[in-house]
Amino acid sequence: MKNSLGRMLPETVAGFGAVKPFAGAFATTPSGVRKAPRQKTVLPKANKLVDNLEEVFRRIPVRDGMTLSFHHHFRNGDGVVNQVLAVAAKLGLRDLTIALSSVFPVHAPMVELMKSGVVTGLDTDYMSGPVAEAVSQGVLAKPVIFRTHGGRARAIECGDLAVDVAFIAAPAADDYGNINGVQGETACGSLGYAFPDAEYAEVVVAVTDNLQPYPLHPISISQERVDYVVVVDKIGDPKGIVSGTTQITKDPVGLKIAANAAKVIQAAGLIRDGFSFQTGAGGASLATAHFVRKMMKAANVTGSFALGGITGYLVSMLEEGLFRNLIDVQGFDLEAIRSIRDNPRHLEVGAGMYASPFNAGCAVNKLDVVILGATEIDTAFNVNVVTGSDGKIMGGSGGHSDAAAGASVTIVVANLLRGRLPIIVDNVLTVTTPGETVDVLVTERGIAVNPLRPELKEKLVTAGLPVRDIAELKALAEKMAGAPKAPPQGEKIVALVEYRDGTIIDVVRQYKACE
Amino acid sequence: MKNSLGRMLPETVAGFGAVKPFAGAFATTPSGVRKAPRQKTVLPKANKLVDNLEEVFRRIPVRDGMTLSFHHHFRNGDGVVNQVLAVAAKLGLRDLTIALSSVFPVHAPMVELMKSGVVTGLDTDYMSGPVAEAVSQGVLAKPVIFRTHGGRARAIECGDLAVDVAFIAAPAADDYGNINGVQGETACGSLGYAFPDAEYAEVVVAVTDNLQPYPLHPISISQERVDYVVVVDKIGDPKGIVSGTTQITKDPVGLKIAANAAKVIQAAGLIRDGFSFQTGAGGASLATAHFVRKMMKAANVTGSFALGGITGYLVSMLEEGLFRNLIDVQGFDLEAIRSIRDNPRHLEVGAGMYASPFNAGCAVNKLDVVILGATEIDTAFNVNVVTGSDGKIMGGSGGHSDAAAGASVTIVVANLLRGRLPIIVDNVLTVTTPGETVDVLVTERGIAVNPLRPELKEKLVTAGLPVRDIAELKALAEKMAGAPKAPPQGEKIVALVEYRDGTIIDVVRQYKACE
Lengths: 515, 515
Prior knowledge:
The structure is a homodimer of 515-residue chains. The longest helix of chain A has 17 residues, at 283-299. In chain A, 25% of the residues lie in helices and 23% in strands. A 10-stranded mixed sheet of chain A has the order 3-13-11-8-4-5-6-7-28-29. In chain A, strands 17-16-15-14-18-21-25-26-27 form a 9-stranded mixed sheet, with helices on both faces. Chain A is α/β, with parallel strands linked by helices and 515 residues long. Chain A folds into 2 domains: 47-238, Glutaconate Coenzyme A-transferase, CATH 3.40.1080; 252-487, Glutaconate Coenzyme A-transferase (3-Layer(aba) Sandwich), CATH 3.40.1080.10. Chain A has 14 helices and 29 strands. Chain A is globular. At the A-B interface, strand 16 of A face strand 16 of B.
């Protein structure tokens, strides 16, 4: 079966069921109802504090085949997933599915648990490091489900991702299960990705290293949904939150791309009061923010909000009054954590409010502009951020597809060559984000506008920007580096790439070394 | 059929269905799942602003027989219910059920709509004024459902009270449906009673007179659940929020009762760090807070939280450092509104977190003490706050039964005579709050302790408090005023009194004048 992008999909997948093919970014609409977890009751004087994780497992009880969920706000500093899975292994549990919003190198111990059958399913929005490597090599019998950040919230709220037990790393908690992410030595800022888990899991466990008197304040996740509170030595290392990519690039090529991306925004007429903006934590994305900031100051405009993973750079723009608000689903550095704790204009939101396509309206819908990266983009503007040039998994959508779908203008910034390989191809290996939601590609050698947006192209041409046809840019890159060859691939499907609406936009096949 | 308190109940009620008899305050546990409203989608650039209420009715569309819900934070200053129902009447709608968390004299126009068949059902936690009078007289064919504030949240979350359209009076809103109650000329403070409606109604309408730029901040109710935003001239009059009963009593008898209630708390050993407290807005309740405050200061203790409807008096205790936090589901005066807007220690919570018995733990469960009133109390400590001595409806539980069930020590304060009638009777006309959840009755002539709490009685006796048997106090009152006669009643059931767990604790029969 083919989806609307011509990608070959299996009709059903063992361990997943019937595949709904992607049919267009807004073609699939919801028809069902929200997940309905069991009602509960907790009597006065009942105690939710449990001595240790093992005891929590016994009380619930966690059984073979269950789905355990986790959030990734500690990124590569996460300390909860490994602790919980070590208990699962110790207790002899089998066949668990791990629904972890993103997987990092720190989660390497999961590979052994996959080999031994403790973990047989993985549901995530992004992965890098040893787990990604092992999945690419085919360690799991069942394909991994890749979702978007908004799609994960949708899948949990709509019951497609049914979570049995949510383990929530809680930088601060009280004994009745109120949680926030902003207090204590392991503060991580927003807990937004854990909101759907807390609301819809059948059982919710707060795992904290910072027990506070009742009532905790502020409250990000409420006692109404938390069944157990367990205190551990350490839930994570906040240093691991900060990625090396949260600094503005110093590379002159990257700066040129960023400057041009900012000019695109200006030419589109968006540097105006009420401007809203999302940018990732990549160096070129942040550099774009840098140029946008200069333009906003020069034009004396006040933006409405910046959205997404929040960096110190966006915090400084808030503090300068360039944005009225930050809308924060995840902090990318310690400045973001300080700001969300202290500044009432810095709003914590859940993943559903951030980006779920199936509620009464998410924040990405209100975006003027999003700046995104790409590992590959094709001449139909489809973007791959899941697999690398060797065909191995090295990322995932995260909020990529969500923000692209929501924003009025979606700009991909990328060097024409990635390593020594052209970034523009005829067909990306793995479609993450459909081309119909991508408006502009900015490279150091020119700017390509999606033919679906002729009015935007005209504005950029009028502004004197170096607009080229995407095929022309592709030819230019191939002249420098030759046409890239698609990597060899095995037959086995190791991952399904789900679009935010629950349809399958592509699959990832097992890694196969070049012969 | 009789329930566990011996109250005669019908097995089924037309328009309500099978009656589940009350079986004890904690005897009925949940067995089902939460309400699952329809999934939705809202595309980027979609507009939620609608010109007027009539247009909202057409877009939804509101149909005959639907349940429309409203919150009562404006109390007797509410301006939304009457506006919305006027539109319903104009459009010729019939057979609507109004789920309004409390009904006040300002809602008098509803009586005509009941007579004309526009409104045929009422679901509420409290009512006073012309609607209560008309219901007592039998204006509706179907009985009114009286719930508790926590029980209403439970009923909505569990789907027993299925709301088709929630109209939320929004003191501030943006064009995408984010709402708060703390900004603008009609700020009312906490919007807690509207939280379940917003979360579980099939359609949610924000009705505002203060449209703010996107994104609104703070956000109390999120855009994720709000379908339409409509701007009207005025949503209410904040002056109507303040009731005449939010001042400390000056009556020497009332002060004596209050002083003794405070002594009960002290004798119970609860004036200690971490003390938690709820008191209503009645004069004697507030006077109790006054004496408790003195004791807390003298003992140099810091309480954890005060809960409930929040008054300026509790705000001053927060500001003095006597409580670390206020947990606020409803503001009772302008000081409460100021405080919840400006003080991060003053927490806004929904009705479910406040008091629902069927979630993972509500705030009333963490109460040390609650001070409550009564229109009648019987020798088994059952309390009536629904009907007056003439048998007419003049109130309702509100949070009465919830706080009584949750608190470690529940104290009812009351004059031995109400008007000229003894307050203690053999059997209250209408049981609102079961005696097993009421621990102490404090009157000006003595203190009675529920025989279920011998250890508490011993503490009070040891402290030298004037402890009497409740039968003794009853006899004392009857000696002064004679034994009260139960008022005559009609046959027709005009209201079902639902306990917080969804069982029926009593019924109210039609008013019948004395012959």
